[in-house]
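#dry-run=false #mode=assembly
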Amino acid sequence: MPELPEVEITRRHLAEAMVGRKVQAASLHHARTSRYNASPDEVEVLLVGRSIQSVGRLGKFLVIELDDGHTVVGHLGMSGRFSVTSPDANVEPHTHFIATLDDGKQIRFIDPRTFGFVAVFDAEALAESGVARLGRDALLDLPETAELLSFLQGRSAPIKALLLDQRLVSGLGNIYADEALFMAALNPLLAGGDLTSDQVDRLRDSIARVLEEAIENGGTTLDDLAYLLPDGKAGDNMSVLAVYGRTGEPCRRCGSGIDRVVVRGRSTHFCPECQPQ
DNA sequence: AACGATCCCTGTTGGC
DNA sequence: TGCCAACAGGGATCGT
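#status=ok
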């Protein structure tokens, strides 16, 4: 599933293709993909003729500024993918959105499970959108240990659940939350408020390292869910995952079997020896 | 307020 | 082999 590293890699590709370009045509074929606008038509009307000023990212959201003050917000959900193609390229199944730019290139959004979306917001709608509720970005703006400690103070929820809460720090999903907890040698079920300053310090460093390594590796492409980069290539990061998806397999550090529990409805992978309660 | 459960959706997988 | 239930999960929403 796309998390911060995969969205960041997507952002870089889209920025290269889109910044300074004008949208010549836009078509949106799926009401669920445009669910944050009044209709698919509204997305098309708001986009055509606009120039793209910047392609940014906050957490797992892509934030694209247009020349008239509107903002395009995109989210990959769990199966979404943007591709940059020529207009005559084969249109893949589940292609819900196509924008044609003034250099002839097309930006396409392909999303089988439709958890993702493409929205065009004015300033008011943006301020009420999910983007406005995000905590600091885990890659660009990771809070210092002291600030994280105060966030966690008094929280009884397991640290795994708190890492998935995008209001705390934005960008971590199920894969990198598990990987960061393993790297920090922290049990995912520990209550957030029980973490010591040293533990939060380790967790902070681990979050940064896990995300940076994943970006260097081109992101994580799982076998079952074909996350692909916008150029169609697969990422390499799955080969270095320590715990995610490795239930029953030997821990890369100590050799004992990786365990799996469910936290807040999400599968959670950890080494019971390296990450004791 | 904090926390957990539920829902959305479809390709893949595992059990029978 | 074929069928179908179970599973995967980010974010919104709702109940406790």
